[in-house]
Design brief:
The complex is a heterodimer of chains A (567) and B (441).
Chain A lengths: L2 H23 L5 H5 L10 E9 L7 E9 L2 E6 L9 E4 L4 E4 L1 E6 L24 H4 L27 H8 L2 E6 L6 E9 L4 H4 E10 L14 H27 L13 H10 L2 E6 L2 H14 L2 E6 L7 H7 L3 E4 L17 H9 L3 H8 L3 E4 L6 H13 L4 H7 L2 H6 L17 E4 L10 E6 L2 E3 L17 E7 L4 E9 L5 E7 L2 E11 L2 E9 L5 E11 L2 E8 L3 E8 L6
Chain B lengths: L5 H10 L9 E9 L6 E10 L2 E7 L10 E4 L4 E4 L1 E6 L29 H6 L3 E6 L7 E4 L1 E4 L6 H4 L7 E5 L22 H30 L14 H9 L3 E6 L2 H13 L4 E6 L7 H7 L2 E4 L17 H7 L4 E3 L10 H12 L3 H6 L3 H6 L17 E4 L10 E6 L2 E5 H21 L7
Parallel strand pairs in B: 1-4, 1-5, 6-7, 10-11, 11-12, 12-13, 13-14
Antiparallel strand pairs in B: 1-2, 2-3, 5-15, 7-9, 8-10, 15-16, 16-17
Helix pairs in contact in B: 4-5, 4-6, 8-9
The chains are: A alpha+beta (567), B alpha/beta (441).
Chain lengths: 567, 441
Amino acid sequence: MNPTVFEKKIASRVALGSLVISCLAFGAPSVAAQSMPSQTPNAPPYFAIQNARIVTGAGAVIENGTVVISNGLIDAVGANATIPGDAWVIDGAGLTVYPGLFNALTQVGLEAGSDDGPQGGGGGGNPFAQFAQQGPVSDGPEDRPATTPWMDAADMLDPSSEAIERWRDGGFTSAMVAPDEGIVTGKGAVVNYDGDAQQMVIKTPAALRLTLDPAGGFRAFPGSMMGVISYLRQLYLDADHQNTYAAQYAANPRGQPRPMYDRALAPVQEAIARGWPTIVPANDVKGMRRVIKLGRDTGAKPVIAGAQDAYEIAGELAAAGVPVLVDLDWPEATRNGDPEAEETLESLKRRAYAPTTPAALESAGVPWAFYSGSASGPSQVMDKVRVAIENGLSEDAALRALTSGPAHIFGVDGVLGSIEAGKIANLVVTDGAMFDEDTEVRMVFVDGHKYAKAVEERPVTPPAVDATGSWLLSLNNDSQEATVTLEMAADGTLSGTIDGERGEQQITDGWVSGNDFRIVAIGSMGPRGEVEVVYTGTIDGNEMTGSASFGGRFNMDFTGSRPGGRR
Amino acid sequence: MRRISLVALGLVASASGLVAQDAPVLIQGATILTAADAGKIENGSILFENGRIVAVGPASEINAPSNAVVIDGTGKFVTPGIIDAHSHIAAESINEGSITVSSMVSIMDVIDPTDIAIYREAAGGTTTSHVMHGSANPIGGNNAVIKHRWGADAQGLLFQGAPPTIKFALGENPKRSSTAGTGFPQRYPATRMGVMDVIRQAFAEATEYKAEWDTYNARVSGGDRSAIPPRRDLKLDPLVEILEGTRFVHAHSYRADEILQLMRVAEEFDFRIHTFQHVLEGYRVADEIAEHGAHASTFSDWWAYKVEAYEAIPYNAAIMTDRGIVVSINSDSGEEGRHLNQEAAKTMKWGGMDESQALAMVTINPAIQLMIEDRVGSLEVGKDADVVLWENYPLSSYAKVQTTYVDGEIVFDVDRDREMRTQMAAEKDRLREMLGEGGSR
């Protein structure tokens, strides 16, 4: 890791911490608080989670211990860590603290469509897209087709992205994000899912990303896979030549033509010189072997992304010293395919054995990590990890592949990936073992900032009304109706069912405090799957009003009445 | 998802791939067509061990070592493995068609060892193929020579030591006749004149580039430490190799005029066209081709699929052979590549070639064209044990392969193939069972 970036980062974090406090003292919201609606307001700079089970990811599990967070960093961890007097102490009884999860490759956190670079022969995100109208844009390697290594994911961040919140709620605190369009797509950054765009960045560049995408067809170079490979060979040769030439020219500039400026080359030169991890996609055996060879031929340090068939060549990958990012989106049978079609042996094998790849990589000693691939959210990721665990991967190894594994591959293991004093305070707190199906994330710390679903912040005021009974709800100006049957305990806890147009839903959580209430249920979105619906509002006698949020995607106002009255 | 045992994984791995022959193999009492000076040996034997031919001759003169696997060849035939001088199998891309000179690309970078055509052609006796770049541009990409070692990886398929070759193409394909006016922008060149201009320009550029390097190398060897090396240009490197005689041109061609044109351009730059491919009008300029020193690789009786391929005759291979050209019959296709023996046999009907001349068209002659004739192409002591055992006469419509060996190892065997089909069906059932889809079929 580049120490200066990290030092600056820490310095700004400390400064920010005190800024937040001073702002909040006068009631002014901080920038971070505005963009992160679920971040706990009034957050102090110190936290201590005590009486928790702590899976540090570095040494033995602490069965009953304390983690102290101070100004964004882990201050202390241990069975008897000292808690500073002004810390916000969280009772961790029954909870487990893990290092924050690290998605080893994703677009979550990047602006949508932000990698459309400049068009034309000088490169660009996808210069071929407009080809049909504009004629050939690349006549050869010298035109640097689809080559934009100067683009840096750190300059393309969207801290207000709703997806960040969704992944963070599922325990993901960090990620490798990188542009994904073109042949040399750009530089990847390790980011935290916290703060504004500058605060998010932990390390950049932390990787260079390539694809082997021959977008040009018969119209623009390169139009074939061999064209892409030959182009990359030429690009790396040119970078090397530029190095040699620049050095010789610097020593003896007179009488020599000066080296030509080429913005495509400097990042590649740097990638070679500094050994940047270079992310290259490959899923099958021949593709992975091709990438290993390309690395040997060019001097790039490949990190293979995809790698679902790596179970077949785990030993070879270990011997080649090539790290691997495993796409968690395991292959599935073709849906709605020709029912008469006979699935090939190759396809059956891949479906049966791809989930054994993690266990195989682990036992071969390959540096590897999981990434989400096209999995749509953190709970799907957990489902897929469980499949790997059923196929022989230990839970410890699965956790490493989501924490220290990616941190190591991208050179940030000094500050991320485990719960150790001095590291960045990225933690995920669960109510059970990480990979158990019933386990839920209770809170998440990113850069020492506490995030928790609002359900965790149940007010302490006792209920002023009894919500028990059968309520008729009218949503969105009578467009939908639902019957809500509630049972309220003495402390205000709600249970019951919601019977609406999409069938009956169980209430998973709910409370009444004063006249306010909050009900959480899982609703059906039809073919789009399930969504968490949160009803919030107030009760006045036998009437209620409020708003229902469907997974944060849209809201419906509602009014309700209790014809039968309080039961 | 159930846990998968490593034993099961092992089974899968062994279900395909090369079958190692530890012991020497003796095929005894067969009719051996050697494609060498020995010609045809009735009641002959061939012994191979460690991938090389150890003995070949009359059965009475060759004894089986005590540990040999002895195969009764009575009533059967043995030939050298067939060599396909022009193939497009086992590659993930064929054309870098975007530009007029694509000599920076190489088929060697995109070998696909999982292409089933490798196995299917081995089932037709093919053991070596010249996997070529396509014909979209006047100067195409670099080619690969592979052995049909089904089960090996991409690097393992490559014919080590085969001299490097490159594809050139003339006529309708590089001038984009079939894509003009279809919405694609017209790429230069659009005429046969333009094709020659592209080639001439490229070699002019390569000559300059070579001079730059020669100057630089001279300065360095003269002790000049301040010399700055020229930029390596992967497009021009192969062209310099052509000029230096270390890379060999295989030129896609049809018409007599363009064949003459290309030879003249090559002679201008003092190199030779190594082999004309397709060369359907070669019979019209056979003497000129022979004088230039080029070989010819053609089709048996396939033509008229486009205008420039109308003036062909089935006597082409025979006429060119009679005029002293080394001629091969190629497939250009994963289907034709499964029965090149029959394609070669057609020259006996159409040109009066004898048995050994016909067999040479798909064995020793393509070996000569690929400059690998000291290793393969005939059955001679010391050569690679690329051997085909036929159930009946190979130059016949009824010819059928029993076993194909590459480097002495079985890559196809008709009985084993039947067993493998059963194994594969069982393996599929097992995998479906494992995936919980056992009852779905």
